[in-house]
Amino acid sequence: MIAIGHWLAPDQPPGILQSLLFVHHLQSKRANMSRTISSLMQPIVWSVGMDATVAEVETLLSARHLSWVPVTEPVRGEAVGVISASDIVQFHAQNRDAATSHAWQMCTYKPIVADLDTPIDKVAALMVERGVHHVVVTGRDGMVGIVSSLDFVRTFAAEDRSAQVVTAAPSA
């Protein structure tokens, strides 16, 4: 929340400029929640097949600095699950063999899959409801992008920073 007019004396009402900036900020928040998930997504570049070994998944995550990757079925290439860095940590905590275990054996099945035009507020609500941090975005030709909870944070944090910079100037 932004405190418009926080630099004013407590008994002095905010000026017109501060009030307009606050209204703009609220409208911007409302507009963001009506945006579609495609506005937040990262284009999908990497995925792994169900038969990839866990060692191969680890190599991909490490080499490409990824925190998660969709697991795809071989026929249509649809996402059937996801593997995250925390899944890899849990895998190793169980002393399992990465060279002989496969992605299908450890992925989290039934990921959230959202169409490009799905409103971000609906995706966010579903992520919270299911307690997940990753979403696969699809279009006509299958997987087209990915979204993580960090993408939401980056979007709203950047917006808040820019609004605070604009509203932090003292009034004249």
**Class of one domain in CATH?**
Alpha Beta
Total E-strand runs: 8
Distance between the termini: 23 Å
Average pLDDT score:
80
Whole-number radius of gyration? 21 Å
CATH topology of one domain: CBS-domain
CATH superfamily of one domain: CBS-domain
What are the low-pLDDT stretches, counting only 5+ consecutive residues below 50?
Answer: 1-12, 16-26
How large is the share of residues in beta strands?
Answer: 15-25%
Strand order of the largest sheet: 1-8-7-6
Protein name: CBS domain-containing protein
Keywords: CBS domain
Organism: Variovorax humicola
Topology of this structure?
Layout (H helix, E strand, L loop, with lengths): L15 H19 L7 E2 L4 E2 L4 H10 L4 E5 L6 E6 H9 L9 H4 L1 E2 L2 E4 L4 H11 L3 E6 L2 E7 H19 L5
Parallel strand pairs: 2-3, 6-7
Antiparallel strand pairs: 1-8, 3-4, 4-5, 7-8
Helix pairs in contact: 1-6
Protein name: CBS domain-containing protein
Pfam families: CBS
Keywords: CBS domain
Task: Kindly describe this structure.
The protein is α/β, with parallel strands linked by helices. It has a domain of 118 residues: CBS-domain, CATH 3.10.580. Helix content is 42%, strand content 20%. It contains six helices and eight strands, in the order H-E-E-H-E-E-H-H-E-E-H-E-E-H. A four-stranded mixed β-sheet has the order 1-8-7-6. Strand 2, helix 2 and strand 3 form a beta-alpha-beta unit. Helix 1 runs antiparallel to helix 6. The longest helix has 19 residues. It is globular, with a radius of gyration of 21 Å. The N terminus is likely disordered.
